UniProtKB/TrEMBL annotation:
It comes from uncultured Thiotrichaceae bacterium. It comes from the Bacteria. This is Uncharacterized protein.
Amino acid sequence: MQKKLTLRLENKLIESEIAPVTKSLIGIIKSNQVDESDYKKHLEEKYL
């Protein structure tokens, strides 16, 4: 027997603000062109 689950969110949760950390990350991503090579360089500098 299959049952369907329905997810219901309160309107205040849907309309809530984005967390400050998330906002800053979105801002960083929008303002910079970061590609895979930049990420690999970051990892090398951090761990090697």
